[in-house]
Every structure is written in C-alpha cells, then in structure tokens.
TrEMBL record:
Full protein name: ABC-2 type transport system ATP-binding protein
InterPro entries: AAA+_ATPase, ABC_transporter-like_ATP-bd, ABC_transporter-like_CS, P-loop_NTPase
Gene Ontology terms, MF aspect: ATP binding; ATP hydrolysis activity
PROSITE patterns documented for this protein: ABC_TRANSPORTER_1, ABC_TRANSPORTER_2
SUPFAM superfamilies xref list: P-loop containing nucleoside triphosphate hydrolases
The organism of origin for this protein: Herbihabitans rhizosphaerae
Domain ABC transporter: 26-257
Renumbered residue ranges of the record's region Disordered: 321-349
Keywords associated with the record: ATP-binding, Nucleotide-binding, Transport
Pfam families membership: ABC_tran
C-alpha cells in the first residue's frame, strides 16, 4: 500500500497510485464541488481499497460531508469522477446503491413512526431483502446498534444518539459491500461510541469496506486501517494509517553520551540534528536510520539506542492542516478556518 502526503505541507511525499491489482471500492479523480463562490471539494483523488476501513478526517468545512454525498450520488460533482464498486456515480446509483449502506445527515425518518416501523418502510425498499426475512433483519439490525429496547418508541422522542443508532441500523439491514458513515458517533455517549466501534470491527471482519468521517482522531486511530486527511476540500494525506504515521514521522531519537560530537559529525555530513535532553534528534527527511547510525559509529560516537520517534495522529494531523493542537479538546480537531458559513441548500445541483 502506498501513502501520499502533500509536499505543500512539507512533510515528504510518496506515490499516490494504488498498488497494481488492488481493487478499489471507491475512487475519485479530480473531484470538485462548488456552491456559488464556496469551493467545498477541489482536486480530490481518493482511493479506498476493498476491505479497508477508511477514516476521513478534516477540520470543520474541509469537505468531508460533501465528498461522502458525492460518493453516494446524492450531490452531483461540479467536475471530476466518482467510481463506486467500479461503476461511475451518480449514473450507476440504481445498480450500486443496494450494495451500499449509508448513514448520512438527515436520513429522513418519519417522526410519528416508531424506530421499528421506520425500518420496516426502508426494508421494504431493499431490493435484495426477501419479504419473509424483513422482520428478522430488522430485529438483528436493532440489536446490533443497541436500540432493541427503544424500537417501539416514536422516532420524534428519540435522543440524537438514538437517531444516530437508527440511521446505523438502516445502513445494516442487509449485508453490504460498502458502508459509509458520516460522523457516526455524533451525539453518542461513550457506551454508544464503543458499540459503533464494535459494529465497524464486525463489518471489517466480514470484508465490508467502511468509509467513516470523523472529527475524533482517537476514534480514527482506534478503528481505521486507512486515513484520508482533508483540508480545504482536498486530500493532504492518504494511505494506510500505520504507514502514514511512519512517513510523517521523520525523526530518529539517538541516545548517546556524546551529544556534541554526534550533532557535529552528522552536520558535517549534511544531516540535520539537534541535541535533546535524552540524546539527539535526527531529521530523517533526507536520509535513513541506518545511514545515521553508520555515520555516528564511524565518527566514534557511542550509540546506546536509536528509535523512530512515534508521533500520534493528532500531531501529524495538526502539521498537515496547520491546526493548533494546543488547547484543542483531547482527541478532537480544532477549527482552523475562518469559514463563511453559507446556508446549506440541501440538494444536488
Ligand atoms: N449545500 C451547501 N450549500 C452551500 N455551501 C455548502 C453546502 N454544503 C457544504 N457547503 C460548504 O462547503 C464547505 C465544505 O462543507 P462540508 O460540510 O462538506 O465540510 P465537512 O468537512 O463535512 O464539515 P463539518 O466537519 O463541519 O461537517 C463548507 O464551506 C460548507 O459551508
């Protein structure tokens, strides 16, 4: 799997092309959506490998929801292409959407019907669900999202978290090849958040591709195999989570008693390094760890330990989106843009 990090943000780059032969559940090229003067999504090339759990991360207004709506054919792109399960959207929507479960804002439940009755209406529209299986499928979906005990209450009396759960249940009524979840833990308490995590893990185990947008970095770090970081409507980084953290992680921490000699010998070899309380920190942007160690040993520096500096997703994210992590809610993104809050018009153009 390849990883790409936009060089504009100065943290290195790699080839963004998918590995040969790897199947993509979703793919966009040159995707763009404007609303009047607002550019919601721009030049977005997204690759979602089959079976991945892709976390779409980004500050408020970075284009996550618009991207998801274009993936699902709910919004027509201004330019560019969207392929879902190999077929071009939105034209292939009738073919593709039965295999795609989605939780998006405003799923359109009827306020005076119960959760179960709402699901029954939606289940009747599922082309792949035989009528004899509808009642069982509804019970299973309600159970899976922890809503069984409130299933017979009216939707309008549901809390935000219960509404989210019902949306999730609707997405899970039949087995899907892709499940797309826009902020699924929005409004959920910690127990609800754990349940969503379990649902995502279960989907992953069954081979379903999951695309999930979130503000919560810790959430993404815990549940996702892949990440796309959006900023101003475009992907500033995407790829496998572990590789992305590694690629964005350009420091080698070397424990040595000879800090001055170590820094000088590296600088003589044009390798940037600085002294730290616990040793020296070497910038690996232009070199590799073995070269650093060899250079130090050749200069007679005692190397006790050398390890890659682990940065969390939060730090990498802050670097990529110019967000300021200090003072931000733990695990949440800070708002980084002065957005003109254009009223949402609600529908495709
Ligand atoms: N229907 C619409 N009409 C006008 N502007 C819109 C519409 N939908 C989105 N936008 C604008 O497009 C930009 C991207 O919005 P979008 O909702 O896709 O971002 P987001 O990353 O999902 O944000 P958030 O995390 O706040 O949900 C914002 O500036 C938003 O105001």
């Amino acid at each position: 799997m390849t990883v790409s990090i936009s060089t504009e943000h100065g943290v290195g780059a790699a080839d963004a092309a998918p590995a040969p032969g790897s199947a993509l559940a979703a793919r966009t090229r040159g995707l763009r959506k404007t609303y009047g003067n607002t550019v919601a999504v721009d030049h977005l090339d997204l690759d979602v490998p089959e079976g991945a759990v892709l976390g779409m991360l980004g500050p408020n207004g970075s284009g996550k929801t618009t991207t998801i709506r274009m993936l699902l054919g709910l919004v027509r792109p201004t330019a560019g292409e969207v392929h879902l399960l190999g077929k071009q959207m939105p034209n292939a929507a009738p073919d593709v959407l039965p295999e795609v479960g989605a939780l998006v804002e405003g799923p359109g439940f009827h306020p005076f019907l119960s959760g179960r009755e709402n699901l029954r209406r939606l289940a009747a529209l599922e082309p792949t669900l035989p009528s004899g299986r509808i009642a069982t499928a509804i019970d299973e979906a309600l159970e899976r999202v922890g809503l069984a005990s409130a299933a017979n209450r009216r939707y309008r009396g549901y809390s935000l978290g219960m509404k989210q759960r019902l949306g999730l249940a609707a997405a899970l009524l039949v087995p899907r090849r892709i499940v797309v979840l826009d902020e699924p833990t929005n409004g959920l308490d910690p127990a609800g958040t754990r349940e969503v995590r379990n649902v995502i893990a279960g989907l992953q185990d069954s081979g379903t591709t999951v695309i999930v947008s979130s503000h919560l970095l810790a959430e993404v770090e815990a549940t996702c195999t892949h990440v796309a970081v959006l900023h101003n409507g475009t992907a500033v980084a995407q790829g496998e989570l572990a590789e992305l953290l590694e690629t964005g992680n350009a420091g080698l921490l070397v424990s040595t008693p000879d800090t001055t000699l170590a820094v000088d010998s590296l600088r003589d070899n044009r390798i940037p390094a600085r002294a730290m309380p616990e040793g020296i920190l070497v910038d690996l942007t232009t070199t590799t760890a073995p070269v650093v160690v060899e250079t130090l040993v050749r200069a007679g520096v005692g190397v006790h330990e050398a390890r890659r500096q682990r940065t969390g997703l939060e730090e990498l994210f802050a670097r990529l989106t110019d967000a300021e992590p200090d003072g931000a809610e733990p695990g949440a993104l800070s708002e980084v843009d002065d957005l003109v809050d254009t009223p949402h018009e609600g529908e495709a153009r």
